[in-house]
Amino acid sequence: MAAGFYLISVDYEIFGRVQGVFFRKYTQAEGKKLGLVGWVQNTPAGTVQGQLQGPRKKVKEMQEWLRSTGSPKSHITKAEFKNEKEVDSLEHSSFNVVK
């Protein structure tokens, strides 16, 4: 595949005011809009974490959205991305909010 079109997977954790502000719902909607699969959930530490999978270019767009946009009432102080790797196929069938 051409650069930007091969599939990647990346884990993320978002810090700041990201719980109780519909962050997971907006993250799910943005991920679906970009054609990504994965999941998002709140953590006991007050952060939001999850995994993104899809074409590299779209995952990078989603990373920027998580880093700088989020939900309208959120306030993102830090976004961490780790375990980025190429994948042969998607491991999820949709983008889910995990309770």
TrEMBL record:
Protein's UniProt keywords contain Hydrolase: yes
Catalytic activity: an acyl phosphate + H2O = a carboxylate + phosphate + H(+)
GO MF, one annotated term: acylphosphatase activity
EC top class named in words: hydrolase
Keywords assigned: Hydrolase
Entry-linked Gene3D superfamilies: 3.30.70.100
Keyword match Ribonucleoprotein: no
Enzyme Commission (EC) number: 3.6.1.7
Protein name as catalogued: Acylphosphatase
Organism: Oreochromis niloticus (Nile tilapia)
Top-level taxonomy: Eukaryota, Metazoa, Chordata, Craniata, Vertebrata
